[in-house]
Amino acid sequence: MRPITRQSPLDEILAAADQVILGKSQQTRLALCCLLAKGHLLIEDLPGVGKTTLAHTLARLLGFQFSRVQFTSDMLPADILGVSVFDRDRGDFRFLPGPVFSQVVLADEINRATPKTQSALLEAMEEGQVTTEGETRPLPQPFFVIATQNPSNQIGTFPLPESQLDRFLLRIELGYPDHAAERALLESGGRREQLPTLSARLSASDFAALQQQVAAVHASAAVLDYLQLVVEASRADARLVHGLSPRAALSLLAAARAWAFTAGREMVLPEDVQAVLPAVARHRLQLLSGSHAGAEDIAALIRAIPVL
């Protein structure tokens, strides 16, 4: 296989995505880093700010098989995983795979479904397989879940439990566009019509090679010391119910490696850890008041730990 340069394919993907998701370069880069680090992505924000469009855009640019599941309160686990039906011609039952059998699954408005249905994704997200009716079936590789959810204060939502939130490597928010980006949307009538014109910029083998290179990005002992101090500071913070878990620490390192890689570097810097920390930590850290940690809470963690 031909050698892959980091800058050209990734810059091309980010540039193409920026033409669809206007004014959100930071969030788009975080989303790409999540997939490069073999993680699942949670996008939480108000309806209508581009969450679904971002998921479609990444899937098309990366050339992945894509399926979309609209979560509703009456959805059942079988609607996601699949079901066996009786084949009269064969005289036996035949399994019909659900939409989870895809490389990228968009779980749209995941917190509109009941906890029972939400939990149908747990095994898939953790182990890349689905067990139904006593049989375990592998999922296509690579396998990613990109979930969107509405703010928890909106009517008809069921909060994701901490165990499921922890399955998401990163959580991002898109927010409102700035004045210039919104003006461009108004003048163009939106950007969703561009989705059918997007073509894959990488092959599956190229993307797998990039993932291997991301995992090999060097993290020095000093950077690991810094990362551990940040994690330990979260565990000692009296404002928090609990701190970051060892799995969260591994997620932080994986995301920092991907962020450094997209910057064209072969080593992680403390700045990379700081750049991805909010997206790694905010959905994992709960304040004593019951809400999740905010941007200022994460900023306080960063200020509390000097760069070695």
TrEMBL record:
InterPro entries: AAA+_ATPase, ATPase_AAA-3, CbbQ/NirQ/NorQ/GpvN, ChlI/MoxR_AAA_lid, P-loop_NTPase
Molecular function GO labels: ATP binding; ATP hydrolysis activity
Residues annotated as domain AAA+ ATPase: 37-178
Source species, domain of life: Bacteria
The keyword ATP-binding appears for this protein: yes
Record bears the keyword Disulfide bond: no
Entry keywords, A to Z: ATP-binding, Nucleotide-binding
Family, as annotated: Belongs to the MoxR family.
Official protein name in the record: AAA family ATPase
Origin organism lineage: Bacteria, Pseudomonadati, Pseudomonadota, Betaproteobacteria, Candidatus Accumulibacter
